[in-house]
Amino acid sequence: MSELKIQHILTLAELFTKGARYNFVPITTSSLGKSIRKSQQAASKHLMELEANGYVERLRSGRKVSVRITTKGHAEMIKISSVLKSSLESIPAYLEFKGTISSGMGEGAYYMSMKGYTKQFKTKLGYIPFPGTLNVKLKDKESIEAKRSLDAYDAIMVDGFSDGKRTYGWVKCYPAKVNNIDVALILLERTHHDDSIIELISKANIKKVAKLSTGSKITIRVPVSMKSNRD
Amino acid sequence: MSELKIQHILTLAELFTKGARYNFVPITTSSLGKSIRKSQQAASKHLMELEANGYVERLRSGRKVSVRITTKGHAEMIKISSVLKSSLESIPAYLEFKGTISSGMGEGAYYMSMKGYTKQFKTKLGYIPFPGTLNVKLKDKESIEAKRSLDAYDAIMVDGFSDGKRTYGWVKCYPAKVNNIDVALILLERTHHDDSIIELISKANIKKVAKLSTGSKITIRVPVSMKSNRD
DNA sequence: ATTACTATCTCACGAGTAC
DNA sequence: TGTACTCGTGAGATAGTAA
Predict the structure, then answer these.
(1) What's the whole-number mean pLDDT along residues A89-110?
(2) Minimal Cα–Cα distance from B134 to chain A, Å?
(3) Are A68 and A59 in contact (CB under 8 A)?
(4) Which of B73, B89, B105 is the last residue of a domain?
(5) Residues A99 and A209 in one domain
(6) Which of A6, A9, A23 has the highest number of chain B CBs within 10 A, making it the mutation to test binding with B?
C-alpha cells in the first residue's frame, strides 16, 4: 500500500496545480474529474485512495470538501518527476555504427582528392583529408538503420561541381569519432555501395593513427543535435 | 490513439535509460518486464502498443529485437515530464489564513510590551512591535487547520523569562504579510484563546496602516520553507 | 447542487503455451 | 533461449442512483 499508483499521478499533479500543497483547497470531484479527463466517480475514488495511502488529507465542512497534499504525497511526486527527468537527461546524443574495416581504399578515394572537393573540405571541415577513404562494412541492422536516419540530421554539405567534362555529386559530411580520433563519415550523392558500407575521411591516415587493419572491428559515433526533427 | 497511455510512461522511461533514443538497442521483453516490475507479456504488449502509436520503432533480426524511441515518443515524454515538473513548481509556498478582525486588543497586548520580550523582538525580528496585538478570528476549518500545521515549520523563537515574581512563556513568531504589510503571527506558550483565534504583531499599528476595523475580513500569508518536513 | 455507493464494462496484467 | 498468442482474473473506469 506504499507506492503511488500510476493512475493517480495526474490527479496528484492536478491538485498541486490547484495549490493544494500547503493549504486545504476546496475542490469538487466533478471539477477534478474534468481536469484529469476522467469521470466524477473516478476522481472521487482517486481522492479516497490517495487519502487511504497518506498522500492527501481531506477536510469536510458540511457539503464542501477541501484537499491538501501531505509531505508524503509531495515527496512521491518529486520522486516520479525526477525519475522521468533523469531518464530524459541520460540520453547519449549520438548515432552509433558498428562494423569492420573493409579491404582496400574506398571508391571515394580518387574523387575526394579532386580540387573541387578539397577546397571545400579545407573551408568547411577545416582540413584537407588524407588521400584515401576508409570503407567500413556495417555489422548489424541497427547500424544500417542508423545510416538511414543520418538523413534527418544536420550535415556539412560539400557541393558538387563540374570540370567541363562531367559533373561530380555532392558529399555530406558528418563529424564523428573513432577511438576518440576526429573523422568524418561521408555520404556520396553517387555511390556504388549498398547500404551496409560507409566511408570515413580524416586529416591523417585513420588506419595508422587508430592502429587498425582490414577486418578490425570499429565503432563510429556521430554526435547529433538534441533539437533534431528525425522521423 | 494519439495520447500516450499512463501505463506506458515507465516503460518508455526505461527505454530512454537504456539509451534507445537515437540508436536501436537490443532488448528482451523479459528484461524490460523486470525493469518495469511487470511480466514479460506486459512488456511485450507495451512495446507493441507503443509501436502501433508511433512512439517507438522496432527492428527484428531473427530472434533478436532492437528498439528505438521516435521523435514523437521523445516529445511525449518531455511533455509529461514538464507537466509534472511545472505542477510541482507552481506551488505557492505559504500558509493562508482567512478571518475577521476581532474586537479589542489581543490578550498578548500587555505582555508583549514587557522588556523581557521587547529586547528579544528588537534583535530577532528587527523591531519593537507596536504596543497592542491584533486578534483575528479564523473563518473556516482550512485556516484553523493551517494554524495547527504551523507547528511543523521554522519559527523565530522568543524565549520565556522570569521577573522574579512569575515566569512568562515563550512566543513563536512567524513572519507574515497582511495586504502586503509585514507582520508577525505569534503563537503564545500560554494562551486563553481557542484554536480559532490568532494574534498578529507589527512595527506600526496594523489597523491604521491597513485601514482595518473590527469585523474587517483579512487574509494572512505566512511563507513556509520548501524544505519543510510537515506531517 | 454535492459525494460515493452498487453494478457493469473494459482492459491491463499474468499464466500457460505455441512457435 | 526468444516473442506473442489465448484466456481468465481483477483492477479501474463509468452509469445510475441514494443520501
Answers:
(1) 83
(2) 23
(3) yes
(4) B89
(5) yes
(6) A23
Q: How far apart are CA B151 and CA B50, in angstroms?
A: 48
Nearest CA in chain B to A19: B91
| End-of-domain residue from the set A39, A62, A89 | A89
B12 or B190: which leads in pLDDT: B12
From the CA of B120 to the C1' of D12: give the distance in Å.
Answer: 58
Residues in chain A: 231
In this structure, is residue A56 part of a structural domain? yes
* Mutation site for B-interface testing, chosen from A12, A24, A57 by largest number of B Cβ within 10 Å: A24
Give one word for A58, left, alpha or beta, with left for phi > 0 and alpha for psi -120 to 50. beta
- Residue A29 located in a structural domain: yes
Band of pLDDT at residue A229, cut at 50, 70 and 90: very low
Domain carrying residue A47: 6-89
Q: In the 8-state DSSP scheme, what is residue A129? A: P
Read off the pLDDT of residues A34-89 as tens digits, 9 standing for 90 and up.
999 999 999 999 999 999 999 999 998 767 889 999 999 999 999 999 999 999 99
Q: Is the pLDDT of residue B106 over 80?
A: no
Mean pLDDT (chain B, rounded): 90
Protein contacts on strand D: list nucleotides below 7 Å from a Cβ. Answer: 1-6, 12-16
Q: Tell me which residue has cell 584515401.
A: A132
Q: How far apart are CA A175 and CA A186, in angstroms?
A: 9
Please say whether the dihedral angle defined by the alpha carbons of residues B174, B179, B182 and B184, taken in this order, is positive or negative. negative
Q: Confidence band (pLDDT; 50, 70, 90) for A158? A: very high
Which residue is it, cell 519543510?
B228
A157 and A175 both lie in a single domain: yes
Compute the nearest-CA separation of B113 from chain A (Å): 32
| CATH code of the domain containing B177 | 2.40.30.30
Q: What is the pLDDT of residue A71?
A: 94
8 A C-beta contact, residue B176 and residue B218: no
Check A22 against B85: CB less than 8 A apart. no
Nearest to A231 among B6, B72, B94 (CB): B72
Contacts of A88 in chain B (CB under 8 A): 13, 16, 77-78, 81
Instruction: Indicate the pTM of the whole model.
Output: 0.85
Res A127: pLDDT: 95
- The reply to whether A186 and A162 lie within a common domain is yes
Euclidean distance between CA atoms B170 and B162, whole angstroms: 11
The verdict on B99 and B179 lying in the same domain is: yes
Smallest Cβ–Cβ distance between B96 and the set A9, A23, A149 belongs to A23
